[in-house]
Amino acid sequence: MCLSGLSDERFMTAAVALARRGHGNVSPNPAVGCVIARDGRVIGRGWTQPGGRPHAETVALARAGDGARGATAYVTLEPCAHHGQTPPCAEVLIEAGIARVVVGVRDPDPRVDGAGLRRLEDAGVEVSLGVCAEAAREVTADFLMRVEQGRPLVTVKLATSLDGRIATSTGESRWITGPMARDRVHGLRARSDAILVGNGTAIADDPALTCRLPGLGGRSPIRVVLGGRTPLPASHCLVATARDIPTWLIIGKDGRQPEALAEAGVEIVAVAGSGDGRPDPGAALKALGDRGVNRLMVEGGGRTVAALIAGDLVDRIVWCRAPVVIGADGTPAVSDFGLERLDDARNFVRLSSEAVGPDLVETYERVRREN
User: Hey, which residues are catalytic here?
Assistant: First the structure.
């Protein structure tokens, strides 16, 4: 709930909605929204553009024009204060004559971390911090996760039967959920920077891992495979199309280097191993964070999902459930990870539940543990 007046709440809520437009399209930069308001009406708005620039403030100021002088800027994340490929947004706001800046959350990036707010205040600009902070933090959660914990925000997608199975005893899995639920998943892909599957799923399903919604073909994320003992066949789709769509294979440093895949265009990322040649899940996520991935979508398989949940590395679950029952001999969505006590179980809270065609799509968020 916002802590400022109704006007501030209204304009910051609009800025948050604008910020969402950048999800999956701006990394390593954060997805930011900005609204310029004057006399109770919007005169400029903007959001972080594809590739991370121009920044939201620059876009909104360009649309506001001369009307920005004396106006108020509503920004979901603290304006940057460091020089990069573009001037600092704090300076741009000052030069435009903005009289007041309302900020949702502070930017923990060491290059900013309050410096943008101080620069504005030193220039005589009135600053209000923490307006709609909860909503602003949620829309920026992926960037904040990478800066504060060094890894992407991890969302696991599950498409299962009512009894949590992703395939029959023979391995048949296409399709458990209906076309409307599958379209929803493609929308999630378009809003992700990268999509990850385990080696076994990549081999068994030979997936394309692209966004195939009309008009969003260019929004397919980076495809990532968490390597295993069995080499990924060079004939598989992920390898055959690696020169067209960025494809990364994460392997343990003690594992075998797949030279044939590298020659086919697959980028090989070596991280600390788990002792059996497989990459350590935590080290794999850190490597993705180091490469600027803010939002990671995980689509299986069961062993990969189990390893991430066991490591307390899953932030959200999007669970698509079809109204069918497969039975215990089907393939479970989450493999075993040796849980013996309920007190050690990973807990999630349901954020939403929606009927999508004949299926149910639920979203869950991790309950963070006390240290």
Answer: 57
